[in-house]
Amino acid sequence: MEGNDLQYVQLNDIVKAKRIIAKQTHHTPIISSKTLSKRINGNLYFKSEIFQKTGSFKPRGAVNKLYHLTQEEKDGGVIAFSAGNHAQGLAYAANQLGIKVKVVMPQSAPKSKINATRGYGAEVILHGTSKDLMTKCLELQKKHNLTLVHPFDDPHIIAGQGTVGLEIMEDVTTPDVVIVPIGGGGLISGIATAIKSKIPSVKIVGVEPIGAPTMSQSLQKNSVVQLNQINTIADGLAAPFVGEYNLAHVKKYVDEIVLVTDNEIITALNLILERCKLLTEPAGAAGYAALLFGKISVPKGGNIVCVLSGGNIDNNTLKKVLEADFLA
Fold first, then answer.
1. Rounded CA gap, 23 and 113, in Å?
2. Helix, strand, or coil (residue 45)
3. Cβ atoms of residues 91 and 81 within 8 Å
4. Distances (CA, A) of 86 to 99, 236, 284, 314
5. Residue partners of 152: CB distance under 8 A and separation at least 6
6. pTM higher than 0.85, yes or no?
7. pLDDT band at residue 322 under the 50/70/90 scheme
8. Residues 6 or more apart from 192 whose CB is under 8 A from it?
9. Is the pLDDT of residue 131 over 90?
10. Residues forming the active site
């Protein structure tokens, strides 16, 4: 990793991370659909991180980050804040290494994600809303002398998530467009760095909910923006801010960011479930929603990859989705 005030993740960092995380994570499958491909006049592929350990891409970055801690840091324990998927990913990774972990989660976090995090051995502290989590986390970090494992704003986390990009390039012959949902920005930072470093011609598109346009606003302001209000069904994309590292990597490598509505996400989720028998969470369906509703221009006959970032949908949310009007 190199840079002056900010460390840009390099392709070599991601290649190293791939070796580090290999035994504790899956190389997830690419799944295609002829029916959905016809809708876009191209070849559509879903990078299915729903089949990753803990049901999302998050263990990739967590395992890589914990590997780089000193023994003293490992012995002292770690702490994080998360809406759910990073909580589970870190708890899983820490459990593998015998490291104690605390996670601060919002009081509105899906019960399924809270229970899973506890199931992996983490201590869960429920506190406020998403915008309150980091303050509480830093307070507990200082009090208990713990090491912070940030969910997205960390070079080792970005490098771990970037392994998704390496796998895409291994499994899809000459991708033309890769579409990635954005919460805090760790996933798209890693994927974009990996792919653009090897195949600069690939178009990388980020997708955010209209109710949580954190990266979009940060790019407009050219600095990290803190959202005062978030309103989206995609809890995995409800980060109230993006990271400094993430904003820098997105500015360097990402071609475009588009916004989708919750109704568009719900429609896309239903269609993926109906046609592909894949159950993703709303955050994971955001990329296909942008494609389905014409938010992204793609080449005719091109190879288009949508990252299904996670499958940890809460039962109550799933019920709402299945009962919603089918819009497409």
1. 24
2. strand
3. no
4. 16, 9, 14, 15
5. 86, 158, 183, 184, 185, 186, 187, 189, 239, 242, 243, 246
6. yes
7. confident
8. 165, 180, 204, 249, 250, 253, 254
9. no
10. 58, 309
Length of the chain: 328
pLDDT at residue 325, as a whole number = 57
**Mean pLDDT, residues 137-153 taken together:** 96
Read off the DSSP letter of residue 132: G
- Cα separation of 307 and 55, whole Å? 13
Q: What is the mean pLDDT of the chain?
A: 94
CA–CA gap between residue 82 and residue 89 (Å, rounded)? 10
Six-digit token string for 64: 């890589």
Beta pairing class for 256-260 and 78-81: unpaired
Rounded to whole angstroms, how far apart are CA atoms 135 and 58? 22
Provide φ and ψ at 38, rounded to 5°.
-60, -35
Q: In this structure, what DSSP letter does residue 324 have?
A: S
Task: Report CA 288 to chain centroid distance, whole Å.
Answer: 15
99-113: b (≥16 Cβ within 10 Å) or e: bbbbbbbbeebbebb
For residue 39, the one-letter residue type is R
Domains of the chain: 11-57+156-323 (3.40.50.1100), 58-151 (3.40.50.1100)
Q: Average of pLDDT values for 70-84?
A: 95
